[in-house]
Amino acid sequence: MLVLAGIFLFSVHPALADSYTIYDLGSDNARGIYGIDAAGDVVTWGTTGCGSSSYCYSTYVDGVVTKDGGTAPALDYDDGTACSSTPAGFNVLKPVCNGGWMGFGAIYNSNGDPNGVYLASGAGVDFLGNGSADQVFLNSSGDFAWVDGLDDQIYVAIPNPPVEAFAEVSAKADFVPADPVPEPGSLFLLGTGLIAVTIAIRVKGHS
Fold first, then answer.
1. In this structure, are residues 189 and 64 in contact, taking their beta carbons and an 8 Å threshold?
2. What is the dihedral of CA 38, 41, 45, 49, to 10 degrees?
3. Alpha carbons 143 and 184: distance in angstroms, whole number
């Protein structure tokens, strides 16, 4: 019974909801999103900030500007495409799809979910926050960038690795092979072998 209970305890894993890190890329005043690349780097455009250039392009990596310039960087853009279908119960606006992911804004949903911005995958539909999704970009890794015209801000949401993935990486990184612990069957064979050797020695000593 104890063995069965142990097997059940360690084989059941609770389902984990997706979680995201959301970065605020600043105001959308005279600014917009130019594109997102396969690594999740977001390029925005604006009409000020780069001297005499007509346009200023800024590259954000994890929410931090790493490069500004008057010319758009030559990245491997992975912006997503229009979606062929949308989740039931949502009044979807501006949906974008890529690699099994869908990003969209929604209002007045028949299912009662709040107005705002959502990111969906095979695991379900996740609410990212209030506001609108007026301009949307989504790469195949689920990195979702959008212009929130309601709050006049630009955001990008990056999916966090599952907790189980952290645990597996940590276990592999911290694992140091130790001397193997003998299995019960091996211990039994070793014990019976020692008994046999002891009996043989005693028999030989008495002869």
1. no
2. -160
3. 50
Give the Cα separation of 103 and 94 in Å (integer). 8
Rg (Cα) of the chain, in Å, rounded? Answer: 29
Q: What is the distance between the alpha carbons of residues 72 and 62, in angstroms, rounded to a whole number?
A: 19
Concatenated DSSP letters for 104-161? EEE-S-TT-PPSEEEEEETTEEEEEESS--SEEEE-TT--EEEEETTTTEEEEEEEPP
Please provide the distance, in angstroms rounded to a whole number, between the alpha carbons at the two ends of the chain: 50
Domain boundaries, the chain: 18-160
Whole-angstrom distance, CA of residue 22 vs CA of residue 92: 21
Q: In whole angstroms, give the CA distance from residue 63 to residue 26.
A: 9
DSSP state of 46: E
Helix and strand element counts for the chain (H, E): 3, 12
User: pLDDT tens string for the chain (207 positions)?
Assistant: 444 444 333 333 333 346 999 999 999 999 999 999 999 999 999 998 898 899 999 999 999 999 999 999 999 999 999 999 999 999 999 999 999 999 999 999 999 999 999 999 988 999 999 999 999 999 999 999 999 999 999 999 999 987 554 444 444 343 343 344 444 555 555 555 556 555 555 555 555
pTM, to two decimals? 0.71
